[in-house]
Design goal:
Elements (H helix, E strand, L loop, with lengths): L16 E2 L5 E2 L8 H4 L18 H8 L8 E3 L43 H7 L10 E4 L9 E7 L5 E7 L18 E5 L4 E6 L4 E8 L2 E3 L8 E6 L9 E6 L1 H6 L6 E5 L12 E3 L5 E2 L14 E3 L9 E7 L20 E2 L3
Parallel strand pairs: 5-17
Antiparallel strand pairs: 1-2, 3-10, 4-8, 5-8, 6-7, 6-9, 9-11, 11-12, 12-16, 13-14, 13-17, 14-15, 15-18
Length: 343
């Protein structure tokens, strides 16, 4: 899908992602060839709902955004936390394995949901009865009680400033959750530190970090290397997915750092490669590096992860090292090779 002269889909964490240069990236999810990529299919909007329209001047403003020196970066003071976030995290001595078994804790949100139809919710993602209550940090000792956990780690020698966000913003509109002021959680990771992010079923969102400050585009879009995730998809039969993506920082001239995604239950991940990696030089391994805006099929597709099913224990490490030579030279049945050279 591309921009038209009078409408635009605002940049998205998952599903359809719009970029200032006019390319729209359908990369969450994923390949529609079920024989190759199991049952997880591309996240497309239900036909019963209508995309938000943006005026021609707004489209022109997007297309005229400079891609390098004008990109913005905002530092988050060490004493600053969001209303839903914890402060700076200290290093953990954990072995890194969470484990756990059903029945799972589901204590995220209370009250009556004000969200729309099932189709709308599946496309926009769970945003909680109170916006953002479907994402929360938990203690390491409690992580095993939750079905969906993302362990967010700092492998760098410097502090990371980070944010986690939803695909939809507080206004309920898709593609507005990952702009400055709309993120759910702001936090910092000291060198070697980790945080345990519990996620409620049906959530579509992501997290991003930057060394020393949270990178933003000139328009205020969160612009570090992204972890993109969808857990217990309502649209895709309970399947889940995740990937590493550098598309937003690459398209806006922001810095790139390494991001490595792994999982504690790789037997549930389809395909050959059980990792999704952006390397520090911008190359990728089963990920979305520069030049893959129009691609699908990369990252994790995770089976049997519907609500109440198997657990997801995803580990996301920012500041990792490595090169493309570390990625297995594997070509799948559809001709895709896991080694992705930065375009």
């Amino acid at each position: 899908m591309k921009f038209s002269a009078s409408t635009v889909l605002l940049a998205a964490a998952l599903g359809v992602s719009a970029h200032p240069h006019g390319a729209v990236h359908n990369h969450i999810h994923r390949d529609t060839n079920l024989e190759v990529r199991d049952q997880f299919v591309k996240n497309v909007k239900p036909t019963s709902t209508v995309f938000q329209t943006v005026t021609v001047p707004a489209v022109n403003a997007l297309n005229n955004v400079p891609t390098s020196s004008s990109s913005a970066s905002v530092a988050v003071p060490a004493t600053t936390t969001s209303s839903k976030a914890a402060a700076t995290t200290t290093a953990s001595s954990s072995s890194g394995t969470i484990g756990g078994s059903a029945p799972w804790t589901d204590d995220f949100c209370t009250g009556t949901s004000k969200r729309g139809t099932a189709e709308q919710n599946a496309f926009s993602g769970n945003t909680g009865t109170t916006y953002g209550c479907n994402l929360k940090f938990v203690e390491e000792s409690a992580a095993k009680n939750y079905q969906y956990i993302s362990v967010l780690e700092n492998a760098a020698s410097e502090k990371q400033v980070c944010a986690c966000f939803l695909k939809s913003g507080p206004d309920g509109k898709a593609f507005t959750g990952f702009w400055k002021g709309n993120q759910v959680l702001d936090f910092e990771l000291a060198p070697g530190a980790k945080k345990y992010l519990a996620v409620q079923a049906g959530t579509i969102g992501g997290c991003s970090c930057g060394v020393g400050s949270l990178p933003l585009t000139a328009l205020g879009q969160i612009s570090g290397v992204w972890l993109e995730l969808e857990y217990g998809s309502e649209l895709n039969g309970g399947f889940s997915g995740a990937d590493a993506s550098s598309l937003v920082p690459e398209d806006n001239g922001n810095p790139i750092q390494g991001l490595t995604l792994t999982t504690e239950n790789p037997t549930l991940v389809s395909g050959h490669e059980k990792k999704s990696i952006i390397y520090p030089n911008g190359d990728g391994c089963n990920a979305f590096p520069k030049g893959t805006n129009a691609a699908d099929g990369w990252g994790f597709n995770i089976a049997n992860s519907q609500k109440g099913g198997d657990s997801i224990r995803l580990h996301a490490k920012w500041g990792t090292t490595g090169t493309l030579a570390d990625c297995p030279n594997v070509t799948e049945a559809d001709g895709k090779n896991w080694r992705q050279t930065r375009a």
